[in-house]
Specification:
- By secondary structure, the protein is mainly α.
- The chain has one domain.
- It contains three helices and no strands.
- The longest helix has 10 residues.
- The N and C termini lie far apart (40 Å).
- The relative contact order is 0.13.
Length: 69
Amino acid sequence: MNADAFLHHLMSSPDYENQIVHVQHIPACKARFGQLDMPLPPALEARLESLGISSPYSHQAMAVNLTRE
């Protein structure tokens, strides 16, 4: 189910009647990637690569870097 179908499902549900008061569609933007200060463990890096993940998003890189301080 995509986001529009899910929203329609919620809005037509009696359980959510009069609870959804605002809907805003935000256009997509280009992804921002970040750099890790230290590399990930080889096994984790290999697993991420196998999933097609080659770089962390900027907020993910920031979180990992701050956690490692």
